[in-house]
## 1
Amino acid sequence: MSNTSKIITRFAPSPTGLLHLGNYRTALFNYLYAKKMGGQFLLRVEDTDRERSKPEFEQNILDSLAWLGLEYDRISKQSENVDKHTDYLQKLIASGRAYHSKEEVKEAGQRAEVIRFKNPNRAVTFIDLIRGEVSFDTTDLGDFVIAKSETEPLFHLAVVVDDFESSITHIIRGEDHISNTPRHILLQEAIGAPTPIYAHLPLVLAPDRSKLSKRHGALPITDYRDAGFLPEAIINFMALLGWSPQHGEGTNEEIFNLTELIERFDLSAVGKSGAIFNIEKLAWLNKTYLAKLTLEEKLTYVTKVLPSLDQTVLTKITPLILDRASNFEDIKKMKEAGELAYFFESPKPNKDLLKNTAHLVKVSELLGALPQADWTIESIKNSVWDFATEVGRAEVLWPMRVALSGQAKSADPFTIAAIIGQEETLARLTYAQNL
RNA sequence: GGCCCUAUCGUCUAACGGUUAGGACGGAGCCUUCUCAAGGCUUAAAUCCGGGUUCGAUUCCCGGUAGGGUCACCA
């Protein structure tokens, strides 16, 4: 493959705020497309607005991308390219394509003079990879402002120059940029740059179908990280928002890691309509990825939420916790609701909840006879099973479980017994018998 | 309001003129060695409306309607 045909995409966020999941989906699609095509994926921090750009926002973008595993081949900051922008600006002015324009100052901070692009006022048509042919009449745009001064280029100019200078071949961005495209095409022609291939992604929508934003509580991606969502789950979820692996011959699978996504991704399989961010599906995805973790990873995960609990016990109950939780909040709730307490301390079962303590003596006897070395879930179960079946499982198992947990809902009695140990099990059984 | 984009179950989506309109999340029900969770099975649930084109439209065209985006000296 020759160098000129190499595909280069870019993610060009501005560090003027915390980016949400919709923004990172754009990054993901740029990444996937570049990798799929054997090309490069660039990160360009669009910090032309010196007033609003903040280092902490930039850092958050870097952190988020790193966490998601979206590695870029190159990073640049738009502010470092101002020389280039002004070079082109000079040329545009010299050739009469742009001009100094006297302005009426309406608001504080406005300049009395800015630089406007001389709009050729014509129709512009481009092919959007997702939408097909799109046409605009640029007359509606007027002579738009491209710089505050000869040393202060603005967004439209900066974008076009930077994309040209870094040989961007494909611009994949949100649909909210679709109306900027004719301006950019006009500018490209004016500076003698080729028009890259455009693909405008449908927007990620808030539940009320409007553009996702802070106003709807759209969280920065790092908040999902801090809430216990796994990057794999977020990646998978974002990919499914607007793109479908089920196209063509299709597949009903939808669990894909980054590598698999690169393999399968296809811009032509990206839909055209906006997609509402469905948190429930994210939770489900997170749970499935949580289940894939190794035991050590699970323990690390759970420990983040329950740092003060006894590690030995926590290790044993981690699988149980993750069977019932899909994020940190779920685990916190389990803890607060007392659903975990019985693993750490003896419960005080409610007599009514116990229902029937008649068979507990026999259960104690059976379990007491078990050799310490044989104290496993399997053996515990086997030792009481026949008896339970004989007199009625619910008659035996329910009281046994409540005696051990004190809860109406809990893990099964065999698992609890195995975790708390023989001595403690017998003690709890005895306590319940005497209620 | 001008311009632009979009329109299949509640949600994410598949079906690129012919299907009993498929899958997933969520819901409901059942099963799964007592409860909960997980798992399995079953089930309810959709082509925005009106015209065309066609032997035949979810699919193509036109018009409505609805929703969204955008109209900065932000990006």
## 2
Amino acid sequence: MITREAPTHLGTMRDRNLALVLGEIARHQPVTRARLAELTGLTKTTVAAQVGVLTRLQLVEGAGPVREGGRGRPGAPLSLASGPVAGLGLEVNGHYLAACVLDMNGVVRGRAHIARNSRDRPVGETLDALVRMARRVIEEAAEAGFTVMGTTVAVPGVVDRAAGTVNAPNIGWQAVTVEALLADSLPPQPIGVRVENEANLGALGELWYGAGRGSGSYVYVSGEAGIGAGLVVDGELFRGAHGAAGEIGHVVVDPSGPSCACGGRGCVEQVAGLDAVLRAAAIESVDAGGAGHLPDATAELLRRLETGDALAAAAVEAAGSGMAVALIAAVNLLDPDTVVLGGLHALLAPWMAPHIESALSRSGGRLRGSVPTIRAAALASESAVRGGAGTVVARVLADPMVVS
Amino acid sequence: MITREAPTHLGTMRDRNLALVLGEIARHQPVTRARLAELTGLTKTTVAAQVGVLTRLQLVEGAGPVREGGRGRPGAPLSLASGPVAGLGLEVNGHYLAACVLDMNGVVRGRAHIARNSRDRPVGETLDALVRMARRVIEEAAEAGFTVMGTTVAVPGVVDRAAGTVNAPNIGWQAVTVEALLADSLPPQPIGVRVENEANLGALGELWYGAGRGSGSYVYVSGEAGIGAGLVVDGELFRGAHGAAGEIGHVVVDPSGPSCACGGRGCVEQVAGLDAVLRAAAIESVDAGGAGHLPDATAELLRRLETGDALAAAAVEAAGSGMAVALIAAVNLLDPDTVVLGGLHALLAPWMAPHIESALSRSGGRLRGSVPTIRAAALASESAVRGGAGTVVARVLADPMVVS
DNA sequence: TCATTAAGTCCAATGAGTGGACTAAACTTC
DNA sequence: GAAGTTTAGTCCACTCATTGGACTTAATGA
């Protein structure tokens, strides 16, 4: 029934406690050994030993005596090193490539953003461009004294962990072995390369560094061409049985609505996706072949909303209502405390969020104690890369010994 | 970010490995020490020591030499003891009270079922009746040589773990401190008394002993007056941020449908709940004051379905379509591999499941690799009590030292 | 200046798991 | 049927992370 696969031995115990100490340092820095002993429940002796190891790993460093005015001998405060350990996040997307290097404190130590339409280009070319960008960023980080320990790549599709492949129909990828290809092309890293769904990483990015901080569990909705969601529960990503959880795009919001490529009718994507909104706002969805930072049509939509265009406003309201129905389902099933709108919907949030909020509170109001709050993503188009880099940081925090 | 609260010391390590060994015995019984060493990754020495402890706790016993025809010295097979350790599951419900005692092997060692309409009776009376039943069952189990180590109570409502209270509007309960009240009224038990949502326990019951065996993650839908769901992911219950996950009843399946007590419109409950189906089938929902095992109206509905009544069939088909829309949402968001229909819907499954299945495969077919299979619950009205008792068993398996 | 308080280090002790040697109990082969 | 082979289970000296108390260090307060 309940399974624990691996046996615990002395080394396991040590690693766990090491992670425990490092985690408390991260949360309470600067902090003395004595206080760490209280926080962790370990003895001073053990804490001192662990701190020794962490210092040698260059994960922790002394932070200069901070006087606290106490009586006895003052403690020696410890902090996470602003040291060499860093993580890299990458993102491939319909209209840009992006990268971001984060140190252990979550400070951005390098970034890149390349507008690029990857929808109509061969997979190989796209990956080459991604690798070139990654190499450049890694090199720049190295010059600034940062060593990238691992890389996480955000892709707009479903990751099949078992097969090691990615399917991302929106950019024409089918069974692409991203992890293997990148691992071969990038400099070797102790933590290696991992691929993850863009919405999932966006959710983590906002959780750790953006609009999701403080909320234990929430739904991050990320809309571009398709609509996906990342589900964070109790600070952990919820992936589902096959890693395909959070595919909110094909939740049915109108059984008598238009039919969808998925085979069903009235999916959210058909109602609140970019194409649907543009169509309803009567904006031509031309993507002029080349690359634009914000696709032209999206920019035009925002312009019209700002100038109070009635048709655009109605289009966004309709999308909001559709989205609300899908979110009601998500809220009832998953019981989150916050909903974060990302991607396209972060841009539309000023006009869209009120409609969603009122629909949500109307529907769930009488049953559940608290209606989840709706927020726009705080990191804009960087949510996913930050989440990706943060995943590497989190990995180090959870298992400090991976840093060689 | 990632948190581990408790420090690991030698004792923790030992307890973990103890659980590991016990778990492998449960999964592979009968099994020898040598094979256990392989399975767990521990040494023969350690396994032998752990088995010694488990034997002393009366959780494990030798099972007589089973010849395997191998070459060397034959091993001494070990099995879970059919010994004294047992768990108790209780259920309170609109129309019955139920109890079930399970030994460590999941064998039913005692049960009770009392038809009783608890909707219109004071909370205190209902709890008294529950306690009387529980006491009787515990006593009978004791006479048969079984010691109840803990109790789990299934209630048709939301459990607020923080406040220790239960809200179950369907039976008129509001902020009832069930755990505290029962713990005071029942004989002391090492594992104590726990309350849990009925759908959640039903999900676990089916997972461990019924239709869910073998599937790692699934959605258990339990419908009576309201409709709730229990979500099992990777063999674990998914509770959500406030323990209110799986409230599928108020997922919107028809934005233009009838308005619901929750404040929204077109909730599944309005379309696929008992009342809706009876209304559509033109059956009077009289509940003749007294108590009936199957409420009269439900029995009548089944009779008509069996005789091929067209109106009843249409009613169930409509309910199935509504349910399908809600399940599409659940499947897309949670990515389960199986859907189990419980409660009322287990009875209706023969007529309802085909409609749900076809709608599900139509909708998700082209996107996700596999469409989840639909099954009817195998334990009928016992799902929840078995899950409740199983929770106690699982607790012992996960932490054998709780058995004093 | 001396007592007090608290931080950090040192060190012998504890105890769970390890690994190799040993014994036990079967089967195979001559 | 006796000797050799194979596998199961036990014994025992050893390792090593954590512990708890004694000790050292460094500040404050009288």
